[in-house]
Amino acid sequence: MAADLMVGSHAKAHRKMRLPKGNSMLTATTTTQTKVARRSRRRSGTHALLFLAPFFVLFISFTIAPVAYSGFLSLFTEKTSGLGFGGATKAFVGLANYLRAIQDSGFLSGFLNIAMYCLLYIPVMIGLALVIALLLDSAAAQAKSFFRLAFYLPNVVPGLIAAIIWMYLYTPGISPLVDVFETTGATWDLGSQLAALFSLSNLAIWLHTGYNVILFYAALQAVPEDILEAATVDGAGAVRIALAIKARMISGAVTVATLFTVVGAMQLFAEPLLLKSLSRAIDGGWTPNMFIFQTAFDRHDFGYAAATSLLFAVLIGGLSWAVTKLGSKVNS
User: What span, in angstroms and rounded, lies between the C-alpha atoms of 303 and 320?
Assistant: First the structure.
């Protein structure tokens, strides 16, 4: 009897220790793998958050927070009571600053100046960059690396430094260029609106043409050689190949460069701010950015400056979105 009991207990223990077979074994293995995969994903997610945390901290601190504060500030204005001896107090005005901005001729005239600047500057700069890129890409071009570097070097100069350089070149009495110009009997005067536009356009062309030369030259390297060889066999000359084939095949790059140049031109600030001392036509609100700067730091109307800056930011954001969508359609 004792022996039978001992054998029965050993059999029960053996059944309890028996490993699962068939579907049970597969289920256990799958469950273990799922747990390991979940643990690995959680670990990977934690590592990704640790790497992304500095970006989000900086982005929230220096982009989201200032924009939110500007939105809050735009709903208020400073008012003085009596003769102004009691100091200024903030008063809630809601959307009044925004309504004032869209009716302010001083603010809106800056967009007209930017439009005229773009009409003068962008066609010349894009056309010049395209011609130079086509010349560099031609078979007859020599020392291509040197000329690419030479054309790109002005783009390395910050806009503020470039404006100071051209201020010297535009100043009568100390500029060798103005002295040479005046020896022909002509007069040099930046007082007119057209002269101011030409002066700013000339500065921007010198500064940004090289960047677009490199952009267009890189696009030209993707033009299939078999197409160019076929055109040569058909009797097309170098000029016809450059204008009828190469220029057309990089039209997407030219369009995107033009649109992004428009977005950049909308933010014009440092160059006219410095040239203002030489030209009577450039006032403190000549561009939207200058108007916002003058409103905030000269007139100390921070609520109105915040409203105009947000409207301007929305316009730039919408234009950038349109450029991105149009660029994707052109490239596709």
Answer: 26
